[in-house]
Amino acid sequence: WGGVQRTFVGMGKKRKVQGNVEEDVQEQPQSNGRSYTVSIAIPGSIVEQAQSSELRTYLVGQIARACCLYHVDEIVIYAEPESVVKSSAKKLSETAPKDPRKKNQRHDGDGTTFTSANVKGDAFSGDLFMLHVLQYLETPQYLRKAFFPVQKDLTYAGLLNPLDAPHHLRATEKSVFREGVVVNRPNPNGCWVNIGTTKEVFIEKRLKPNIRVTVQLDEHGNGVPVSPDNPRLEHGLYWGYRTRLATSLQDVMDSCPFGSYDFKVAICRTGQTSLESSEIQFPRFNHMVIVFGGVMGIEETVAADDRITLKMEEMFDSSINAWAGIGSRTLRAEECLLMTMAVIRSRIVHAQTE
């Protein structure tokens, strides 16, 4: 996977980018910016619920669409403890279709055998698979060729519904901000950037080629490189999500790119408040993280992680039960995410406007 970087100008930071009802809706800059962020954390092992490459890709596509619809700023993909992964695989194997040629395995539609044993191996990694598809979908279409080489994880990504996010601009659309890639054309006074329009824009700052950069344009079409957070901070625009991997649930909290999460929410079966309850209220916060569990739930992950010394009620500021009142014995991760964000989005906005 190529090590393409996206530059955070003005923040001194860089982050890596590895890599339909059709309606033109362009979000216009608001007068007030948005300083708070909403993150979600979800285990990469959830792709094991799908029985083929196509279904795994579609599952991740649903997650990306839900995050875009409800203005999620960061998606963290965390690894579950090995004991939880094995328990999840055992639970899944009870209902998953079997490959008649080999016992205890599920047959993948592309001719390979997909088992829980190779999730962490060289053949397949659920965490990396999810990361690659999420980053591919978040990247504007005109930049994908520059950042994403042909690879197996993205075989079916082209079939997914597009995010059509505010930064996925058409060539003729006007916008204060645009995403671009630095063109390999050396210039002593700066660099040229492809921003998806008919003409490249010149910026008076020398950057390495093949770097993704956010460009702010003036009324004359002149560009200045800025942080990808500027559209949100200055104008309240939703400008896509960033992604990162975490080695554990504890690492989700310890490696927060915003310094720390000051409000943590767990979505679990033992949640104190039902998702259907009108009592769900949030305090004003700066950086919120909503943690979703895998097949075995967050409770099992917390109990099995040696790095976590706190109890569930001590680790999280709030817990919500999304399973109460549903009409099925099971709730898939992508369904849980969409249900949860649909309900709490208005609570999040309300908390920030009080």
Describe this entry's structure for a reader.
By secondary structure, the protein is α/β, with parallel strands linked by helices. It contains nine helices and 16 strands. Strands 1, 2, 7, 8, 9, 10 and 11 form a seven-stranded mixed beta sheet that branches. Helix 1 (53-69) links the parallel strand 3 (37-43) and strand 4. Helix 1 packs across helix 3 (126-138) and helix 1 runs parallel beside helix 9 (333-353). The chain is globular, with a radius of gyration of 21 Å.
Overall helicity = 25-40%
Alpha plus pi helix count: 9
Order of helices and strands: EEEHEHEEHHEEEEEHEHEEEHHEH
> Low-confidence parts lasting 5 or more residues at pLDDT below 50?
1-5, 8-28, 92-121
| Major pleated sheet | 7 strands, mixed
What structural category arises from helix and sheet content? alpha/beta
Number of strands: 16
Protein topology:
Blueprint: E1 3-8, E2 13-18, E3 37-43, H1 53-69, E4 74-78, H2 82-93, E5 106-107, E6 113-114, H3 126-138, H4 141-147, E7 177-182, E8 191-194, E9 201-203, E10 212-217, E11 223-226, H5 230-235, E12 242-246, H6 249-254, E13 263-267, E14 273-274, E15 287-292, H7 298-304, H8 312-315, E16 318-321, H9 333-353
Parallel strand pairs: 1-10, 3-4, 3-15, 4-12, 13-15, 13-16, 14-16
Antiparallel strand pairs: 1-2, 5-6, 7-8, 7-10, 8-9, 10-11
Observed structural traits:
354 residues; alpha/beta; 7-stranded parallel beta sheet
Summarize the structure.
The chain is of the alpha/beta class and 354 residues long. It has helices at 53-69, 82-93, 126-138, 141-147, 230-235, 249-254, 298-304, 312-315, 333-353, and strands spanning 3-8, 13-18, 37-43, 74-78, 106-107, 113-114, 177-182, 191-194, 201-203, 212-217, 223-226, 242-246, 263-267, 273-274, 287-292, 318-321. The protein is globular and about 60 Å long.
